[in-house]
Design a protein that fits this description.
single chain; 156 residues; mainly alpha; 3-stranded antiparallel β-sheet; 3 strands
Length: 156
């Protein structure tokens, strides 16, 4: 640290990001170094840029794009627009969480079906076709619909 400023490498190491990422943020106009040494090209960052980078990384972790973050940092969005953008991200995370919960429930069902069937022990001795039918039976609740669909595909 020199004169209360951090070198790009120090800042990158502190936040666990690459120097390349910091240069990209600079190129996009999101975070500009407080000073660039004309002689060696070293970039120096002040405490304000450290705070900006922290905010950028938090927003990025929440799913905001760099363009969206730039708009927020530049004050292009009104308070109401920012609240709407935050609400859209919250809704997207809710939908992702719901999708993840559904997939988890599906996996639990498959595991329960496999354990209940007792056929897991003989899986390696089955033919490929037998394994395919077993998996279809375990994965799909509506076995009849799957069987019909598979038959249709096989006869096409």
């Amino acid at each position: 640290m020199k004169d209360g400023l951090m070198l790009i490498g120090e800042l990158a190491d502190f936040f666990g990001v690459s120097r390349k990422a910091l240069r990209l943020y600079e190129k996009k106009g999101i975070i500009k170094p407080a000073r660039i040494d004309a002689g060696n090209g070293y970039r120096y960052y002040a405490p304000e840029q450290v705070q900006q980078l922290n905010a950028l990384l938090e927003l990025k972790a929440l799913g905001f794009s760099l363009d969206e973050i730039k708009g927020i940092v530049d004050g292009e969005a009104s308070g109401g627009q920012l609240l709407q953008a935050l609400e859209r991200k919250r809704q997207a995370w809710r939908e992702a969480a719901d999708a993840a919960r559904y997939k988890e429930e599906c996996l639990e069902d498959i595991m329960r079906n496999l354990e209940a069937s007792g056929e897991a022990e003989g899986l390696e001795r089955m033919t490929q076709e037998e394994r395919a039918w077993l998996l279809a039976k375990l994965v799909c609740v509506e076995e009849v619909r799957v069987q019909r669909s598979l038959e249709e595909v096989l006869w096409l």
